[in-house]
Amino acid sequence: MKNQSKNGLLFRSEDIKIIMQEDSCPETYSRSNMIEGKSSFNLIFLLSPNINLEAQDCGTHFIFKKNQYILHYSRQESTAKLWTENQEVLKYLQIQINYQYIFNLINPESNRESAEILENMIENNYIFLHKETPPNMTVEMHIILREIVSYSKRGVMQKLFIEAKIIKLLILIFEQFNEKNTIETSPKTPSIIKKFVDENFHKNIKVEEIGKLIGINQNKIRKEFKAQYHITVTDYLSELRMLKAKKMIIDKEIMIKEIAIECGYEYVQNFTRAFKKKYGVSPETLRNG
């Protein structure tokens, strides 16, 4: 979520409102009032460190670390105060969703699982992942927020895009909470990186970009990943791409250039060089056999 200049109301429809708050030049402290509508679910992603949140309706006071989030149900319209101290930036994204929209989406009358999900949402069971610890954002959540903030189209295309991304966010949240009994209090860095690479190796990504997306130091990524999996992140990424390339190369109807792009290589020369280094022959030679 770095290098985004958009601030204020990003999107509004009958059912959804999205607000980005970013106070980039605080003098002594940053402060913001966040309004939660009547019968609404509020997804709040805290994107800067040491954010204080005080809920006016119940007097609850939280202090969030960077990249934590909560999913909160508000029965009545209420105001929450958010602030930072010591000249720290105040940055968060609020997605407010009407109750009826969620009700129609989940359809709790369809089966027991759907009813339990909605009940957990209403009872605010998704605020904490482990005991009193707010959940941490995943890599996928960061990517989705970047896509929401940077989307430029308007009208029906924007509405469909936003709704699709919110559904994906909810799925990720439900999955994260379903796994809370089998994972540790905070996800390990190596497993986060591995999951990201497994799902995105076909894209033109660089190892340096992964750390920026999840806010983890590059040296920590390289050291802990290699300690866990006995291979560097770069070599693991290359290994996945080469396995996919080898499977695709037997299909002579697919151009070598297309395979290169599908495997995350921007330039076919780089793909050819990597393929030859891995298998000892060029893609063309292996194909023509």
From TrEMBL:
One of its GO terms (molecular function) is DNA-binding transcription factor activity. The keyword Ribonucleoprotein does not apply. It comes from the Bacteria. It holds the Pfam family HTH_18. Keywords: DNA-binding, Transcription, Transcription regulation. InterPro entries: Homeodomain-like_sf (IPR009057), HTH_AraC (IPR018060), HTH_AraC-typ_CS (IPR018062), PchR_regulatory_protein (IPR053142), Tscrpt_reg_AraC-type_HTH (IPR020449). Residues 191-289 form the HTH araC/xylS-type domain. This is HTH araC/xylS-type domain-containing protein. It comes from Chryseobacterium glaciei.
